[in-house]
Amino acid sequence: MAFPNTRMRRLRVSGSMRRLVRETTVTVNNLVYPLFVRKGNRIKEPIKSMADCFHFSPDTIVKEAEDIAKLGIPAVLLFGLPDKKDKTGSEAWSEDGAVQDAVRRIKKAVPELIVITDVCLCAYTSTGHCGVIKDAQIDNDATCELLAKISLSHAQAGADIVAPSDMMDGRVKAIREALEANSFKDVAIMSYSAKFASAFYGPFRDAAESAPDASTGLTDRKTYQMDPANARQALAEIALDIEEGADIVMVKPALPYLDIIANARRRFDCPIAAYNVSGEYMMVCSAAQAGLVDKDAAMLEILTAIKRAGADIIITYFAKKMAQSSSKFV
Known about the structure:
The protein is of the alpha/beta class.
């Protein structure tokens, strides 16, 4: 009996052949690098919970932004840490806030670099929650008003894209209306549309000093971030954000939700971002440090999987290493 005509291994016989028929390729153009900025001067402090990541002050972040641009990475995503916190997170929309200062400096020094700003209250509130608390619950509508103020302050500083990560209902509409009313019609919104209540945010919460305060009566963020079990609801959230004016939608985290990315890609035509979050990043870093995995190979495999699922944009702490790396599938 003759062997079947189809031998799938014919297209795997060499590195050149595999490159020739490769379906998915991650390039530097797909990457966004997250950065943490806090008020002060001459600050570049390692973040203990996140390998090769730092807290910067607005003056030192400029050099980092210049280096990122030289690597060809098209965008950064800024997260801010305040000097003081209060119940409403008022420093988040301060003209003198760390993010606002950093945006102005980066856009002056590296105007071609896209600056995306995270829009949320968790790092700014004394409660560590993403919204204003009233009667042991998040006041959704009052929070949306503050998110619009934050977004407007970022746009006034020069942000190219604002990225609400709070998961309040209607916040994209509130932000879009505030931007339009103040002549910032060209500022884009990248919405964290399907942000799940995940176990993979731990290192980030340490870096952003944004762990929820249990004494508020809300011990976690499950009343506003999504239930990890719900896929159809994720698509409904994305559809609502697009209807309200989002230009880019995001799924966060990436790896446990590749199915959500893939389903969103099949259904929606707008750009889709995925966040390769801190816990996913540190699992690879920790395993590599223990000699259990090849860090470069694992990085490439993960980023390829995220793009293969359908993400156009990948926010990742691996962005600089990916841009610098000669690692590739062979």
